[in-house]
Design brief:
- This protein has 98 residues and is of the alpha+beta class.
- Helix content is 49%, strand content 15%.
Length: 98
């Protein structure tokens, strides 16, 4: 596993909070104990959910370690994302948002 993967995952989850009500980091149980502890603490501090799973295709065994807090999305970024989607594919936008 790339040692920067947990950091990248956490950064993405924080950035997704701009336009979503909840955001989660999902990592395999094979991450190092240091990364696990660091991610769990950061998720608690920033209100990000943290889920771990066993990397087994037949039985992934997900476990919620930290539940995400609900936040109000930043409407500037929500509207920007919606505008970009509409400009990219108006029919898909209309299908999703009617």
């Amino acid at each position: 596993m790339d040692p920067n993967q947990p950091v990248v995952a956490f950064g993405q989850a924080v950035s997704y909070r701009l336009f979503s009500a909840k955001s989660y980091v999902v990592m395999p149980t094979t991450i190092s104990p240091e990364d696990y502890g660091r991610l769990e603490a950061l998720c608690m501090l920033f209100g990000i959910g943290f889920v771990v799973f066993t990397p087994d295709v037949k039985n992934p065994d997900f476990s919620i370690r930290v539940r995400a807090q609900r936040f109000m999305p930043d409407m500037f970024y929500v509207n920007e994302f919606a505008d970009r989607l509409y400009n990219h594919d108006p029919s898909l936008f209309n299908q999703l948002f009617g």
